[in-house]
TrEMBL record:
Xref: SMART domains: HTH_XRE (SM00530)
Organism: Seonamhaeicola algicola
Phylogenetic classification of the source organism: Bacteria, Pseudomonadati, Bacteroidota, Flavobacteriia, Flavobacteriales
Keywords: DNA-binding
HTH cro/C1-type domain segment(s): 29-83
Protein known as: Helix-turn-helix transcriptional regulator
Keyword DNA-binding attached: yes
Classification via Pfam families: HTH_3
InterPro entries the UniProt entry points to: Cro/C1-type_HTH, Lambda_DNA-bd_dom_sf, TransReg_Diox_bact_type
Keyword Cell inner membrane appears in the UniProt entry: no
One GO term describing the cellular component: cytosol
Amino acid sequence: MSTEEQKTNEIELTPQQLKIYKKAFGERLQEIRLKKGMSQTALASLIGFEKTTISRIENGRTNFTFSTIVKICLALEVEMKEVYDFKFLK
């Protein structure tokens, strides 16, 4: 497959779609955190972040790294697949 063919098959993600996915991820994260009875402040403290960072993630207003998600999952004592359990757009 040529480079040109690869480009035409590339999955495109619009800024609006990305915003929707980040929001869905954040809502799922918040749902798990609340089920665990943990505040944003407590979660932030466990992973060495500010409460505002957790708020921005949960509201879909920031990008985050893989290592951030790993830390969050460890702090919440959940498997990563749980935080990614939300519906994707078609």
